[in-house]
Write a structure and sequence with these properties.
The protein has helices spanning 3-15, 45-60, 78-87, 108-111, 119-127, 129-141, 182-190, 203-208, 219-224, 250-255, 258-292, 302-312, 314-318, 325-334, and strands at 18-20, 31-37, 65-70, 92-96, 144-150, 157-160, 175-178, 194-197, 214-217, 233-236, 244-249, 296-299. The N and C termini lie far apart (57 Å). The chain is globular. It contains 14 helices and 12 strands. The strands form 2 sheets. Strands 1, 2, 3, 4, 5 and 11 form a 6-stranded mixed β-sheet that branches. It folds into 2 domains: 3-153 and 243-280, 3-Layer(aba) Sandwich (D-Maltodextrin-Binding Protein, domain 2), CATH 3.40.190; 157-241 and 284-334, D-Maltodextrin-Binding Protein, domain 2. 46% of the residues lie in helices and 17% in strands. The chain is an alpha/beta fold.
Length: 336
């Protein structure tokens, strides 16, 4: 093996890639195996999006790049698997925008309450100039590269095991599970409950044992974790959204041959397009799962939504140093 080839293979070893090589690098038999971790269950938007990504990568590479998918949190929740990407023990991980807070504050805007008008406009923002800009910002400010965005398909609805929630007044005295996002915790406080940080794998037990009384959650994740068994009431309020990022180690990605980088990015682009076209529609079956389990679902009226929005608005002011008004205006304008 030539000196350049030895250096290349050594770099791959350092970055933790599973790389099987014959006598010369980049020969026809070379195979790259990527370990991909996410927390979704089958028949959910995120799960199906990663299955499509796997299929496209393997097809486009003629089987030279193999994607081994570990769903259902087999390798951990969003934060631990994202940490695994940085450390090299996992190649690709899926993390919600609200779970990026331990690593970066550049996605705080995505957690602002009532920043988005609809699922359709969420996709307009992320698929457009702002979404692409923040992929670049993530690369420049961290060792992460975002391959694509994937939407669970709904807003983070108010879910309670204790009582129906029709207004912020009904939130008094409730403890709501929170992700490690300061914006999310402040939003929970603003609408009247007490935020209680609980890791996602422990949330079912926390709800069951009354450690927490509810959560702001998307149907996608609630059903994946069987929360319809412990949640009794859902109030649909378009208050907060959390979209997932498919994360790979930036240095690992850049160490790959250009042709393989292109394959991964093409498959990523197709996965995002598939997700944005289908996530909201797929979400309907997840909502039905909750209804079939006996969960009472209530959709807030426009007048009630305004009450929730007014209660949450102080959060925008608190984070204006992290989310400048100019950026807010751009996000709102992109949704028109």
């Amino acid at each position: 093996m030539c000196r350049v080839s030895r250096i290349f293979v050594s770099l791959l070893a350092v970055f933790g890639l599973t790389f099987i090589t014959p006598a010369t690098s980049m020969a026809a038999q070379d195979t790259l195996v990527l370990k991909l971790a996410h927390t979704s269950a089958p028949h959910t938007p995120i799960f199906e999006t990663y299955e499509l990504f796997k299929k496209k990568v393997e097809e486009k590479s003629g089987g030279k790049i193999i994607v081994q998918v570990y769903p259902l949190g087999q390798l951990g929740g969003d934060v631990p698997t994202a940490e695994g990407v940085l450390k090299g023990s996992i190649d690709i991980a899926s993390a919600g925008s609200n779970n990026m807070a331990p690593f970066t504050d550049i996605f705080f805007w995505a957690d602002l309450p009532f920043i988005f008008k609809s699922i359709d406009t969420v996709h307009k923002v992320y698929a457009g100039e702002i979404g692409n800009e923040y992929k670049e910002k993530l690369e420049k400010s961290s060792d992460f590269k975002c391959l694509f965005y994937a939407d669970p398909g709904s807003f983070r609805n108010l879910m309670s095991s204790k009582r129906p929630l029709r207004s912020p007044a009904d939130m008094g005295g409730l403890k709501f599970r929170s992700a490690p996002s300061p914006v999310e915790m402040d939003t929970v406080r603003a609408i009247g409950a007490s935020p209680t940080p609980v890791s996602w794998p422990e949330t079912y037990m926390a709800l069951e044992q009354k450690v927490v009384d509810g959560e702001m959650q998307q149907y996608h994740w609630a059903v994946t974790a069987m929360h319809q068994e412990v949640i009794k009431y859902v109030t649909e309020v378009p208050g907060q959204h959390a979209l997932h990022l498919a994360l790979i180690n930036k240095n690992k990605f850049e160490a790959l041959p250009t042709a393989w980088q292109k394959i991964l990015q093409e498959a990523a682009d197709e996965a995002q397009q598939f997700n944005f076209a289908n996530a909201e529609k797929m979400n309907e079956s997840l909502k039905k799962t909750c209804l079939d389990a006996g969960v009472t679902i209530y959709t807030a009226t426009p007048e009630e939504v305004n009450v929730w929005r007014e209660a949450a608005m102080p959060v925008w002011k608190k984070y204006q140093d992290k989310v400048p008004q100019a950026l807010v205006e751009r996000i709102l304008a992109a949704q028109k």
